[in-house]
Fold:
Amino acid sequence: MSGLGSEDPATAAIRDALPPLLQRLGARSLLDAPCGDAGWIGRLELDCDYTGVDIVPSLVAANNRRVADGELAGRFVVADITRDALPRADLILCRDCLVHLSFQNIVRAVARFRDSGAQYLLVTTFPEWQDNRDCEDGDWRALDMTKAPFNWPAPRALIDERCEEGGGGWRDKSLGLWRLDELPDSARMAADV
Structure:
């Protein structure tokens, strides 16, 4: 099941911005990692090959049944983004995931993203957030990917999600676009965490 940020109002800005962004980048394939139940993205008209990965086998099986029934397009596979080889795609969408992972597993996930051969990464970031803190896997906190310990460059594009959750406390929630080859290498990031 996808979380609270997957309802129609919470995804409206992304649904509007994602198709033209993919077109502008010339992206012919999209990897949704993790995809959850593909609820909001499954309704988009994407002019590219779509693959969703998730760590939960029952979600992947349900999504594949929906593909077989004609409710969804694309393909779905079971994968752990911190450990498994990931399918090749031009752009990886990683929404609402890294905020639940420890710094160490974020470094692992970014290494898997880079190893996939993808050119771009679109990931949740909070550009007004001051201090990134570590957490146990499964917990949640906001992260600004341009701040320590990640120290990513400024994103090439930012999709403001117009988030209304948390009583306005997460109003800066965005999807930031980075080229994977411009991010610090995994060894340097690991040394910083």
